[in-house]
């Protein structure tokens, strides 16, 4: 008689993934410099990780500037996560509008335009700056706003990997009446994420370059969560022998056989299999799941402990300054090398 499957109760992971290239430090500085010409901030977050996709640096940079929070990619998140999040914001940040949307559906995008229009009642032109962590869908959202608002095509580059937008760009008109312009900005990562699993969740949802987090580790985490959610569809989809498993290697071997991921010599390519599995998750093929705990108790604890983000922001600022200095030194060396080459 086969024993019933028992999923793992814990995921042991102690590596913090830090990714803060020079263009992010520069982007955060330029965001701060251009704030005086901005009327409204739209902060885009990932609905699959509604807490982990919060960058505390924005709290310090934006200050008291009017802000709207948009939880994008809600079509990939658990629909039941919306109610507790709205309740928590109504209690802890009652003056901040919170909207849920997907760039692929027009209804949510129209709600953003309609809400932004209310800020334009007393001014001839509204300038909106869009900020957020990498790969939360800012550029796709801007393109959708522009398409619906003024009937024009893409204005912001998009891609599956984070870091496509590298500079703060000029204004993009998204509505004629009232006149609304948007400013796209690069995705800005937290320089230091103190919680290892939190950084892994950001990576799994595409906010950190895959190779930095290790694709196979990310699949192991997804397997752990799918088993927690009671979703064992991967067994039939990839023909995993003996049913549900906690063994990531067994899963990846099954995926590799299913998609024909074989390297020279006939060995299975587990990295290619992991990339495929990740892509399926990000496309929503395994269902709609929210990876952060959004129970009322967890949300109360989160907002109570991180109301001002003082500790996290001080660490982030130190890391940001350090990385900015390293980038400045690198650029200085490159300029010096170029000058010496020209002299020779």
Automatic annotation (TrEMBL):
One of its GO terms (cellular component) is mitochondrion. One of its GO terms (biological process) is mitochondrial translation. GTP binds at residues 72-75, 135-140, 187. Residues 313-344 are annotated as: Disordered. InterPro entries: G_CP_dom (IPR030378), GTP-bd (IPR006073), GTP-bd_ortho_bundle_sf (IPR023179), GTPase_MTG1 (IPR016478), P-loop_NTPase (IPR027417). Residues 25-191 form the CP-type G domain. Keywords: GTP-binding, Nucleotide-binding. Signal peptide: none annotated. Gene3D superfamilies: 1.10.1580.10, P-loop containing nucleotide triphosphate hydrolases. This is CP-type G domain-containing protein. It comes from Umbelopsis vinacea. The lineage of its organism: Eukaryota, Fungi, Fungi incertae sedis, Mucoromycota, Mucoromycotina.
